[in-house]
Design the sequence.
């Protein structure tokens, strides 16, 4: 899978993609993540990619021409399944969406910045708008990093223990059960006896009960 990310601040994405699971997935050839500086696609001699909004609104807006140039260049190299814009008014990103996007071959993520992007970009280039939450970030770079991480980690082979990814929170619309490790007792606090029993079926039943209970208490909306 290939993810192309278009941004005005590529430096913000250097660390997330060069460590841990995302780096290993790229080293294995399972995923390819390419970050493109939008300023490389402007014809402005000062590499400017934004301008004032028409009307009386405050804030700067990303211009249509450099975005068109960037997307057109990428599309000349390969076909893309989705061209995503990180936007607070987009679909709410969740695990089901991450699973679905992980099945695609190529996607572009355009990082929003400043006051937003020229609306014609959304009308004529973007196929999907996605939000990571009901809040506003300085730019879409962190949102793009979150989405890329969630997408890549569920691709087979990205995690050595694939069963671990399948048992994460939200995979079955439930929160994960509590987990414990050694020592079995610390300061008088014991690990539940069932987890020390070695009885696989009963342990799975306990984990399911705990997942349901935690979800009812912490995220009842997931059960609706």
Sequence:
């Amino acid at each position: 899978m290939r993810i192309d990310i278009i941004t005005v601040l590529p430096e913000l994405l250097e660390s997330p993609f060069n460590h841990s699971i995302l780096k290993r997935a790229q080293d294995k050839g399972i995923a390819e993540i390419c970050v493109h500086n939008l300023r490389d696609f402007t014809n402005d001699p000062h590499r400017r990619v934004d301008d004032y909004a028409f009307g009386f609104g405050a804030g700067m807006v990303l211009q249509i021409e450099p975005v068109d140039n960037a997307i057109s260049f990428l599309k000349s190299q390969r076909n893309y399944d989705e061209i995503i814009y990180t936007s607070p008014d987009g679909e709410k990103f969740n695990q089901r969406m991450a699973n679905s996007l992980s099945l695609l071959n190529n996607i572009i993520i355009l990082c929003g910045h400043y006051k937003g992007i020229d609306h014609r970009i959304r009308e004529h280039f973007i196929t999907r708008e996605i939000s990571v939450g009901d809040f506003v970030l300085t730019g879409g770079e962190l949102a793009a990093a979150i989405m890329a991480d969630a997408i890549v980690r569920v691709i087979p082979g990205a995690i050595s223990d694939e069963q671990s990814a399948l048992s994460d929170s939200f995979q079955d619309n439930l929160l994960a059960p509590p987990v414990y490790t050694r020592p079995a007792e610390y300061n008088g606090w014991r690990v539940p006896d069932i987890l020390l029993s070695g009885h696989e079926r009963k342990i799975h039943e306990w984990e399911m009960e705990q997942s349901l209970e935690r979800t009812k208490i912490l995220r009842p909306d997931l059960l609706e």
User: Anything to note?
Assistant: Strands lie at 2-7, 32-37, 50-52, 60-62, 82-92, 106-110, 128-131, 185-186, 189-190. The longest helix spans residues 200-218.
